Amino acid sequence: MPLSMTKIAYRSKSLDSLRNWVESGTEAHMRTRYLPKRHEEMIGGSLYWIMDHTIVARCEILGFEQRPDSHWTIRLAPKLIRVEPHPKRAHQGWRYLAEEDAPRDLTDGEEPGDVMPGRLAGKLSKLGLI
């Protein structure tokens, strides 16, 4: 089973702007400073996007390439797949995500439904209310 990762979509203001960027060409390229140690396990896995403390979508990871500036490019499939929203605390960089912890894909036409915003869920969790 391929390994996946999470990353904050910090440059995207909305899910539509993220979709426009991902689906604008034959591949989407994301730059990272360091190559993940487990990168070989990640090919065929997914990069799960976090917006407003919630995992909202994913892209398939096609591979990794070193850049001339010694950073790395993560090559992504040009298709954004919506997933069932799942609260996720903000973090810097990327984090590994095992398949059993990944949210399920939404089917075509399926709406995410009522989901508590990630920040609110985090605050309520700290208070022991959820």
From TrEMBL:
InterPro entries, A to Z: UCP032025
Pfam family, one: DUF1489
Name of the protein in question: DUF1489 family protein
Lineage: Bacteria, Pseudomonadati, Pseudomonadota, Alphaproteobacteria, Sphingomonadales
